[in-house]
């Protein structure tokens, strides 16, 4: 990916913990590094195929001037999010926000914070075997796509599968979707739980029936093992009802733990 850099943008704004900072204001300096593909713009010499850095400077200035944040961390987060939501071409952004007049009663050149934020790619498994199962799955897809920090890119066909785990219950309707998101894994997990709760999901019987089940299967190339979140999903390689719809939309995406593609994993359990 290519990069467009904005350095030393000066903005007078009213951010800070102290009341005087909010009232009197002070100078801030912003650097922005925008990761995007500029090849077509460069080959065609066409601004419409690139990112207009003058517009980005105006956006940064508006965020800084139209808000009052206690922390420069909050200002940086808001700038990064606004840029990523505004410009589809930008995949990643690094914001460095400097506060040269920081009231710390010591001689320093500047105090600054630097953050990097990006669009992440996640794969979500969907399942339901209570009530209007298709309605629950369709609703979850719409609710994910309606959230400003999520973009549903692909959705598999829904398939009917037999339940696993030994609990007597109705067959499931299962599917998978590909998602771009600004959420961290835990933020995404929390959002999925909220959608489940909106569909009256109850966690009473382990492996039991449910109105809606949403699981993070993959998230970029992240490998994490926590008590409440394991990525890649710990059971994905044993679940044909996950691998089959996932293979439909992403056959060659790989499990970062063993390097095997979804297509390969599916063929192994179907032998």
UniProtKB/TrEMBL annotation:
One of its GO terms (molecular function) is kinase activity. This is Bifunctional folate synthesis protein. PANTHER family: 2-AMINO-4-HYDROXY-6-HYDROXYMETHYLDIHYDROPTERIDINE PYROPHOSPHOKINASE. InterPro entries: Dihydroneopterin_aldolase, FolB_dom, GTP-CH-I_C/QueF, Hppk, Hppk_sf. Catalyzes the conversion of 7,8-dihydroneopterin to 6-hydroxymethyl-7,8-dihydropterin. Keywords: ATP-binding, Folate biosynthesis, Kinase, Lyase, Nucleotide-binding, Transferase. Its EC number is 4.1.2.25, 2.7.6.3. Pathway: Cofactor biosynthesis; tetrahydrofolate biosynthesis; 2-amino-4-hydroxy-6-hydroxymethyl-7,8-dihydropteridine diphosphate from 7,8-dihydroneopterin triphosphate: step 4/4; Cofactor biosynthesis; tetrahydrofolate biosynthesis; 2-amino-4-hydroxy-6-hydroxymethyl-7,8-dihydropteridine diphosphate from 7,8-dihydroneopterin triphosphate: step 3/4. CDD domains: DHNA_DHNTPE, HPPK. The keyword Chloroplast does not apply. Belongs to the DHNA family. Residues 206-217 form the 7,8-dihydro-6-hydroxymethylpterin-pyrophosphokinase domain. GO terms for biological process: folic acid biosynthetic process; tetrahydrofolate biosynthetic process. It comes from Hominilimicola fabiformis. It catalyses: 6-hydroxymethyl-7,8-dihydropterin + ATP = (7,8-dihydropterin-6-yl)methyl diphosphate + AMP + H(+); 7,8-dihydroneopterin = 6-hydroxymethyl-7,8-dihydropterin + glycolaldehyde. The keyword Nucleotide-binding applies. Gene3D superfamilies: 3.30.1130.10, 7,8-Dihydro-6-hydroxymethylpterin-pyrophosphokinase HPPK.
């Amino acid at each position: 990916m290519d990069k467009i850099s904005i350095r030393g943008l000066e903005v007078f704004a009213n951010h800070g913990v102290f009341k005087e900072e909010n009232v009197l204001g002070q100078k801030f300096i912003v650097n922005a590094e925008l990761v995007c593909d500029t090849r077509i713009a460069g080959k065609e010499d066409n601004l419409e195929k690139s990112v207009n850095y003058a517009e980005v400077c105006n956006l940064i200035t508006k965020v800084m001037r139209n808000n009052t944040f206690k922390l420069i961390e909050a200002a940086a987060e808001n700038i990064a999010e606004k840029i990523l939501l505004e410009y589809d071409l930008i995949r990643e952004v690094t914001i460095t926000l400097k506060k040269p007049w920081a009231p710390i009663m010591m001689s320093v050149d500047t105090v600054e914070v630097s953050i990097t934020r990006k669009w992440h790619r996640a794969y979500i498994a969907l399942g339901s075997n209570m009530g209007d199962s298709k309605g629950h799955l369709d609703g979850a897809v719409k609710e994910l796509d309606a959230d400003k920090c999520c973009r549903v890119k692909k959705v598999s066909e829904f398939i009917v599968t037999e339940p696993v785990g030994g609990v007597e219950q109705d067959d499931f309707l299962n599917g998978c979707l590909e998602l771009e998101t600004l959420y961290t894994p835990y933020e995404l997990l929390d959002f999925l739980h909220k959608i489940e709760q909106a569909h009256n999901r109850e966690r009473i019987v382990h492996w039991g029936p449910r109105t809606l089940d949403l699981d993070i299967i993959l998230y970029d190339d992240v490998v994490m093992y926590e008590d409440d979140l394991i990525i890649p999903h710990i059971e994905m390689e044993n679940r044909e009802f996950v691998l089959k719809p996932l293979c439909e939309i992403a056959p060659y995406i790989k499990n970062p733990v063993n390097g095997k593609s979804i297509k390969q994993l599916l063929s192994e359990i179907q032998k």
